[in-house]
Amino acid sequence: MFETAQICELGGRETNQDAVWSGAAGEWYGWALADGLGGMGGGEIASGAALRAIAEGFGQNPDLMQLGEAANEAVRAKQVERPEWKAMRTTLVLLASNGQEARWVYSGDSRLYRFRAGAIVEQTLDHSVPQTLVDAGRISAAEIRQHPDRNRLLKSLGGLTAEMSAGAATVESGDAFLLASDGFWELVTELEMEAERVRARGASEWLGGMQLRLRERLARMASGEADNESAIAVWRV
Fold it and tell me: What's the CATH number for 8-236?
């Protein structure tokens, strides 16, 4: 029913603070990506705790909002274990589908893109300072990638409550989804995502094509500039 491919790589960082997960329960399939906030300390602990909670809870209750709350509580539980973890946070994007419908929730700037007939028909809006500037008409969406405040998030997991947004859509054969951390989508444009989707014959080929474009861009960047790179390609066959 679905073809899936994923990457979760170090990139230009000393530690990988991203995490990815995929699983199934009954008729529902699930995919999740989390990106620990590097400047808060314990980012890799936060992202790992969030996705462990998703993995443990998905088979028992595929309600995505409740899973997000469980992930948030898992991060908060880890915060009290060490002083250096007390402010740690993580983004989250979580997708579930039974082949006929898809549901998703997210917090932060890890994105979900939905494709139909090779084109992006929907994408999540970052919980970030630059996105508020886009909403106010002060910058274009394309300018988010280079904005100096692009890493300033307004929502993430690890607070008193899980501040998340949600979406849903019907699913048809040939539809595709991309879950991506900012280290991936900042280096692969939406036009490139679409071009590789049209060219590809499956999830692995699609993700491989996008990753090649990312590598070509990385080769022109200074050492240490690149973030961790994580993405999950989901293809409804």
Answer: 3.60.40.10
CA dist list (Å): 91 to 5, 179, 231: 20, 12, 13
Whose structure tokens read 């699913």? 171
Q: Enumerate the domain spans of the chain.
A: 8-236
Could you list the pLDDT tens digit for every one of the 237 residues in the chain? 999 999 999 887 889 999 999 999 999 999 999 999 977 889 999 999 999 999 999 988 779 999 999 999 999 999 999 999 999 999 999 999 999 999 999 999 999 999 999 999 999 999 999 999 999 999 999 999 999 999 899 999 999 999 999 999 999 999 999 999 999 999 999 999 999 999 999 999 999 999 999 999 988 876 556 789 999 999 999
Q: What is the pTM of this model?
A: 0.96
